[in-house]
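Incident review: delayed structure delivery

Summary: a single-chain prediction request sat in the queue longer than the usual turnaround. Root cause was a stuck worker, restarted by the on-call engineer. No data loss occurred. The affected request and its eventual output are reproduced below so the record is complete for anyone auditing the incident later.

Affected input:
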Amino acid sequence: MIHQRLPLVVIAALIAALALCSACAPCGPAPCVVESVPQATPAVADDGWNLTLFHLNDTHASFRAEPATWRDDRALVGGVVALQSHLAEQRADAAPSLTFDAGDFMTGNPVGEMDVDGVLGGAWIAMLNTLGIDAGVIGNHDFDLGRDNARALADAADWPMMALDLRNEAGELEIPQQPVIFERGELRVGVIGTGGKGSGGMRNFM
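Output delivered after worker restart:
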């Protein structure tokens, strides 16, 4: 998880938001999504506006706390319950905030294969839905149980899940979610999610 003040990211996001608003052609036929969330107006600091970003990636269905093998006492760490509590605590101290998931939430625990309402991994998505994720990108491991199931996972998620450079054989977006613009206080933040390819294979970017 990253908890960080990033004024440069805010500036870049604002530029992206303006670009999306002025020219939504890259978004395809569907309109850009705009979400307005009433939050406190950001406090102005010496280095500009404050926005707190919380970031998750590669959770791989790790819903339980696990022994910390690097500690002598092997204390239990992690898990959805602890993460939910930590996020609530940090958000209470943060002014406006956004929470992103960069994918690869599947594969690694049998809960990721449990069928809920016809969706393999539906139980795990239900847990992630409790975390208040604002937007995310789908990862390569999220396709491990098939393309149809990956789309079903995206539909079951409470957050918009993107892969804006991933197209099917017909040239259509495999995951149809369009870019999102969030309003946080007086900030408008554009979010784009892609699954680019690097030397080691697929890479996910928010």
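Verification: Confidence is low (pLDDT under 50) at residues 1-31.
Action items: add queue-age alerting; document worker restart procedure.
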